[in-house]
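Weekly modeling sync, notes
Attendees: AB, CL, MP (scribe)

Item 1: holo prediction request
CL wants a bound-state model with nicotinamide-adenine-dinucleotide before deciding which constructs to order. AB pointed out that an apo prediction alone won't tell us much about the pocket. Agreed to run with the ligand included and paste results into these notes for async review.

Input as submitted:
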Amino acid sequence: MGLLEGKVAIVTGAGSGVGKEHSFLLASEGASVIINDLGDSAEQTASEIRDLGGIAVSHSGNVAEWNTGEELVEKAKNEFGDLHILINNAGILRDAMSFSMTEKEFDEVISVHLKGHFVCARAAAVYWRNQSKEGKTTARRMVHTTSESGLFGGPAQSNYASAKGGILTLSLTLGRELSKYGVTTNVVAPRARTGLTDYIQSMAAPEDKGAFDVYDPANVSPFVVWLCTEDAQEINGQAFIVGGSGVWWMRSWSHINHIKLDNQRWTIDEINARKGELFSGEDTGVPAFAAPKFG
Ligand SMILES: NC(=O)c1ccc[n+]([C@@H]2O[C@H](COP(=O)([O-])OP(=O)(O)OC[C@H]3O[C@@H](n4cnc5c(N)ncnc54)[C@H](O)[C@@H]3O)[C@@H](O)[C@H]2O)c1
């Protein structure tokens, strides 16, 4: 018996790449999966899952549109009678340095990633809150998709890094709002060779067919699917980098130093006089890109 027998999952952007792999693993663990993507690729993934004996239906639609979230939740209810898991994954890149980026490039990326995550999360939250109020309490899961660009900032990605950083705080906010309804919400930054990254030479498949393929997108899915199981009930509001053989638990924006007056407003001169205390011995430049190394 699979770990997710009887569970119903939505995966956005599951027509290819990481989302497609998440869908295959969810289905192989017994979940019924609603596969969302633009165009025909959603149905392609769903039919491949059905050919393997899994349960899947497709939904073709843009996650940046408000009604897509509602349609996906309705589809889960109508086809499979409930919804337990939402994996927000759909994404695009429109890279350019900030000084060259167009309004269209900025808006498209914010829409698909940040709004697209919120649209689906909101629709699921409405349904799960109502279910909880009716006394139907069962484990519910959201897993969102960020990026190392969102964790650390990334040159030529002010649109993407902002959206992916927003997704990290969106997840924290959802965690604070929805845990009382049995929902956990976590974020994963994948490392994988997909349509988004296949231009990166270092991520190419190994020539030796027997060697471990570090950047196979399927390497990301076991941790994402584990987050959806009963065993991960206590994991909430967390962020991870996942790829190859590694899982890194991430945390950021912690308090470093503190200066304070006694119930009065600072003057600029006073701040300047005590800046050494606030920044004592710390590096005040742009923080290093502290991504963990494979191996
Ligand atoms: N591959 C990596 O190393 C990597 C690194 C960091 C983050 N990510 C993130 O992982 C997620 C999956 O990307 P991937 O690498 O599998 O790339 P991918 O291009 O293979 O998959 C993204 C999918 O999202 C779909 N999509 C795009 N816009 C959509 C929309 N508006 N509505 C519905 N579907 C839409 C695409 O059609 C595509 O099938 C993305 O959020 C991406 O930013 C990937």
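Recorded for review: The CA atoms of residues 18 and 217 lie 5 Å apart.
Action items: CL to compare against the apo run; MP to circulate these notes.
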